[in-house]
Design brief:
- By secondary structure, the chain is an alpha/beta fold.
- It has two domains: 288 residues, Metallo-dependent phosphatases (Purple Acid Phosphatase, chain A, domain 2); 173 residues, Alpha-Beta Complex (5'-nucleotidase,  domain 2).
- The chain contains 16 helices and 20 strands.
- The strands form five sheets. A six-stranded mixed beta sheet has the order 5-6-8-9-11-10, covered by helices on one side. It has a five-stranded mixed beta sheet with strand order 3-2-1-12-13, with helices on one face.
- The longest helix is centred in the middle third of the chain and has 19 residues.
- It binds zinc ion.
- The site of zinc ion has 7 residues, from loops.
Length: 497
């Protein structure tokens, strides 16, 4: 390169540097998968939404006029506080802390589609969810332009699109659901027209290293296909991913679960060229160093009081010895044995298919409502179906193929012989005696298992047959276990007949 050319190149470089537009930044704060952890008592540790509220308040003071606060869902379920309020307690912080955006998670549907409508109505203005809505109601907004510090940020909201495999047909039919990918294809042209400086996707979906065989989480594909998305805020898998590049341009963060971390991302943009020039972020650990926020505590006071009383409530009846959660459901696990007995009693079922819902044990003596909640932390209801012997055998074999997975269910009320690799099974004996003359027994299981999760496709296929008369009894699993315990003093749970 001669001197003349060098001079030109230098001049060019200097010009590029001098002519970039004004650099401005916004600060995006993210919470996700809070699961009703409002105070230390909810999770027996010093991380909670009350403490996060203090962190958010401080960051807003420090970064005045620059902050956007986003929650990526799963607030309505997880603690006694949320259970008692049928999810509404999980909505209070969204209002009190002035969240800008809320993307509902799959657990917001745990109290049924109707209640989901009430929960989302309570914070209508901030819901962004382009790929799911309740039929007959106005769809949620898919995206919104939020302006802070002179920066225009297009925020898109999308939830998990897997409801078909998490809900039974009657409930699922009340919803309109599409893949987040489809939503993005539809709305990104509109978003580009509005000339945002940055595009953020807030999703109740997670990124994974490998391929997601069931297709629950679309983040990897989205990051590859839509490089114009600058920041993706993830959720759902409860993992702590403090910030990483995904695809060519997108940057991904997922701040764990249960109020243990607050995600904070600073996005710097060139507001003349409408481009992001830097993204840097981290997750900040929540600890007792942050005092609880008074304003949020006051707003939640009634819910927290009710939960405090309920935690101590003694369930009638007593246990002669603890009920242990270890072992394999249907073979050696006492927890699952107790749940099966309770479901059979509540529905007069002949056979029950159930597993463990947590690792919690029940103590000997009197059980509290908190102990019971830890045993059954989900808002599951009991589903019954009339199945033939062959259908039951096929269901049991499929479960056995997943025997190491947490969602595996054991068989209660009948004995089965399963082939070595669980290709098939035979039901050998029905504990109550002869197989009924009509060829069908009444099977009880929980609604979540019945929906199949995309894992138990044989089970779901059988339950979808009209001849099975699959019915959601609306009896809650937790209530059934309480009723079973309440009738018995010095109960001993031993596995098997
Ligand atoms: Zn969650």
């Amino acid at each position: 390169m001669n001197l003349y050319r060098f001079g030109l190149a230098l001049l060019f470089l200097l010009c590029v540097n001098w002519t970039h537009g004004e650099l401005r930044d916004v600060v995006i704060m993210q919470t996700t998968d809070m699961h009703g952890v409002f105070e230390d008592d909810d999770d027996s540790q010093s991380s909670s939404w009350l403490r996060i509220a203090t962190m958010v308040r401080r960051i807003r003071q420090r970064e005045e006029g620059k902050c956007i606060l986003i929650d990526c869902g799963d607030n309505a379920q997880g603690t006694l506080t949320t259970a008692l309020s049928r999810g509404m307690a999980g909505i209070i912080p969204l209002k009190t802390m002035n969240y800008d955006v809320w993307v509902p998670g799959n657990h917001e549907l745990d109290y049924g589609v109707e209640r989901f409508g009430e929960l989302t109505d309570a914070v209508k203005d901030i819901v962004l969810c382009g790929n799911l809505y309740i039929k007959g109601k106005e769809p949620f907004l898919a995206w919104r332009l939020i302006e802070r510090n002179g920066v225009k940020v297009a925020v898109i909201g999308a939830t998990a699109s897997y409801a078909k495999n998490w809900l039974l047909a009657d409930e699922y039919e009340k919803l309109h659901v599409e893949k987040a990918f489809q939503t993005l294809e539809r709305i990104l042209p509109q978003i580009h027209q509005s000339k945002p400086d940055a595009i953020v996707l807030a999703a109740h979906q997670a990124w994974f290293e490998g391929s997601d065989t069931r297709g629950v989480n679309e983040i990897s594909t989205i990051a590859k296909s839509f490089p114009e998305i600058d920041v993706i805020l993830g959720a759902h898998s409860h993992r702590l991913l403090p910030g990483q590049r995904l695809g060519r341009c997108s940057w991904y963060m997922q701040p764990g679960c249960h109020g243990e971390y607050l995600g904070v991302v600073r996005v710097t943009v060139d507001t003349d060229r409408h481009v992001v020039v830097a993204v840097e972020g981290n997750v900040q650990a929540v600890s007792a160093d942050y005092a609880e926020d008074d304003e949020l505590r006051n707003a939640l006071a009634d819910y927290l009081e009710a939960a405090k009383a309920e935690r101590k409530r003694l369930i009638k009846g007593s246990l002669a010895r603890p009920v242990k959660s270890y072992g394999r459901p249907g073979v050696s696990c006492e927890t699952s044995e107790l749940i099966c007995r309770a479901l059979a009693e509540a529905t007069a079922a002949d056979v029950v298919l159930h597993g463990r819902l947590s690792k919690a044990d029940l103590p000997a003596g009197h059980v509290t409502a908190q102990d019971l909640f830890e045993l059954v932390p989900y808002e599951n209801s009991i589903v019954t179906a009339e199945v033939t012997r062959d259908e039951l055998a096929a269901i049991v074999a499929e479960q056995w193929r997943h025997k190491t997975h947490y969602s595996y269910c054991g068989l209660w009320g009948a004995d089965a012989k399963i082939t070595k690799n669980a290709e098939s099974a035979v039901i050998t004996t029905l504990w109550k005696g002869e197989w009924p003359a009509n060829g069908r027994v009444k099977l009880a299981l929980n609604n979540h298992t019945a929906a199949g999760s995309g894992r138990f496709t044989v089970l779901r296929g059988i339950l979808d047959k009209p001849a099975c008369h699959t019915t959601d009894t609306k009896i809650m699993t937790r209530d059934a276990v309480e009723a079973y315990l309440a009738k018995r003093e010095n109960l001993v749970i031993s596995v098997g007949r």
